Amino acid sequence: MPLKRAQYTIPTPILDLLITTFNINHSYFSSPVTCPTQFTQFYSSFSRDIIFGSLGKTFDHKWQGIGYAHPHNATNLQQAIHWARMAAQNDPYTITILISPGYRLVQKPQPAYRPFPGHTCYCSLCRWYDCI
């Protein structure tokens, strides 16, 4: 099945600088084609990428360590922000660098999304371990 649009990624020199500066060791939302060659671990948007070395789907695993995420749409971006914040709250040594092609996340406020300090989750995005 052909791609309906090109996969988004940032220029290689910028990504290389991020990887070396922050000691990033894995990526989220990668594919076998877009995964930086410096990584030995990546999580994909598709379970079928396991045959190419993916550790599984991005939101099926607890986020930890220093990771790079480049979600492909606004829904995944909003969920990735939530997961990155929950992961950092759970483990202060977890850092996620998110790259976005420039989505407008919120057109109108939705009561389902709550502010994070003292977070009590009722949102449909969250499947975080201690959040539901």
Topology summary:
Elements lengths: L11 H11 L3 E3 L12 E2 L23 E4 L4 H17 L4 E4 L34
Parallel strand pairs: 1-2, 1-3, 3-4
Tell how many strands the DSSP assignment holds. Answer: 4
Kindly name the structural category. alpha/beta
Which range does the strand content fall in?
Answer: 5-15%
Overall morphology = globular
Which strand order do you get reading across the main beta sheet? 2-1-3-4
Low-confidence stretches: 1-6, 108-119, 122-132
Number of separate domains: 1
Average pLDDT, all residues: 77
* Cα-to-Cα separation, first versus last residue: 36 Å
How many helices in DSSP terms?
2
Rg, Å, rounded: 15 Å
Main β-sheet description: 4 strands, parallel
